[in-house]
Amino acid sequence: MKEFNDIEGKDVLSSDGKLMGKVEDFTYGTDFKIRSVVVKMNKDIVEELGEDKPLFTSVKLKINLDQVKAFGDKVILDKTLDQLHIHFHEVVEDDLISSIVGTEISGNEGEDVGKVDDILLDTESWDVPSMLVKLNKDVLETLDIEKSLLSKTRLGISMKHVTSVGDIVMLDSSAQEMGKIIQDEPIKKM
Fold first, then answer.
1. Separation CA 42–CA 20 (nearest Å)
2. Which domains does the chain carry?
3. pLDDT in tens, 148-186
4. Cα–Cα separations (whole angstroms), residue 160 to 26, 123, 190
5. Rounded to whole angstroms, how far apart are CA atoms 12 and 121?
């Protein structure tokens, strides 16, 4: 299991060893399964591919997961740069993992629960099993959890408790019911 923030910035290489760029994001589906990796392309690679580089922005392309051969310290794609060109797709901002990070969370009774601090990714199954949540002070008190002065208190909440993701992440339970979630599905402080 890896935190999204720890994966962001990893080098992405083609199978012929060309440094294509860096991991910038991931796209996901409504089932919270990762669909593709978003790569911020290196300027020289964009030129080598014959693409026009926008004047003030970088080129970001998404590569479907079936094109990823290995995912470790670096991301290795399964084709050469020339072969990969046809597998690039434009990025749609609506389905990016990074768009969830920092989003406020609401319980099903409309109360503020906290904010999404990070997303956990399973880089083997490409599932998004849970989000790391920085809980509001009121919720910490309700759940009788002490906030550490030296580090932030984050709890993992399973994505199965998320009913929707929009401007706010909506949960299937209230802040008071989160105690039952913690008891039934032990969540560790991070």
1. 6
2. 2-97 (2.30.30.240), 100-184 (2.30.30.240)
3. 443 456 778 889 899 999 999 999 988 777 766 665 665
4. 19, 18, 19
5. 17
